[in-house]
Design a protein that fits this description.
The complex is a heterodimer of chains A (about 110) and B (about 110). With about 110 residues, chain A is mainly β. Chain A is built from no helices and 11 strands. In chain A, the strands form 2 sheets. In chain A, strands 2, 4, 5, 6, 9, 10 and 11 form a 7-stranded mixed sheet that branches. Chain A has a 4-stranded antiparallel sheet with strand order 1-3-8-7, with no helix packed on it. In chain A, strand 5 and strand 6 form a beta hairpin. Chain A starts with a strand and ends with a strand. Helix content of chain B is about 0%, strand content about 60%. Chain B has no helices and 11 strands. Chain B is globular. The chains are: A mainly beta (about 110), B mainly beta (about 110). The interface of A and B includes residues 58 and 106 of A.
Chain lengths: ~110, ~110
Amino acid sequence: DGGITQSPKYLFRKEGQNVTLSCEQNLNHDAMYWYRQDPGQGLRLIYYSQIVNDFQKGDIAEGYSVSREKKESFPLTVTSAQKNPTAFYLCASRTGRTYNEQFFGPGTRLTVL
Amino acid sequence: GQSLEQPSEVTAVEGAIVQINCTYQTSGFYGLSWYQQHDGGAPTFLSYNGLDGLEETGRFSSFLSRSDSYGYLLLQELQMKDSASYFCAALNRDDKIIFGKGTRLHILP
């Protein structure tokens, strides 16, 4: 079955530690996205990538980093510079052409203690 | 800046019709999408408008007016399972997709 996987579902880290969130898709989609969602809030764009080895900052990129070495994978690192990292992180992909549907992974709930 | 505005909450009765509005301000606007999200879950795609006018998908319809920078989602024959948050999202020409803050839909029996 095609889809997007994110792991782990729940993640706990101590303050000051970097943590990497995994996102893998087997939909052969060109574009991939990372969003952050806080309770009762919308989705805020962190980073997105249109093709391999290229990515652009979203609206809240500070304190985060990404890589896109393979078409299938778009990991997100939450660094210690991110002041308030506790949130629900969602990864999405879409074909990158005019068809606009984004497919979302199940999300990772990160808690920094 | 780029932003999308939608009401924070809407309440409707089971079996009725409800409309959720969205106004947007973005550069390089290409189209408007709608997503549904149940508590604790991931958003799922409902509809997309790349052109002005109405798009119908079953009980859900979506409308776009580029000249007014405005769109809406129309839900008909409301069911209790439609209780969720609904987001409008703007696609820009550089593939950037920005979401509104969401509208919480409460359905009364």
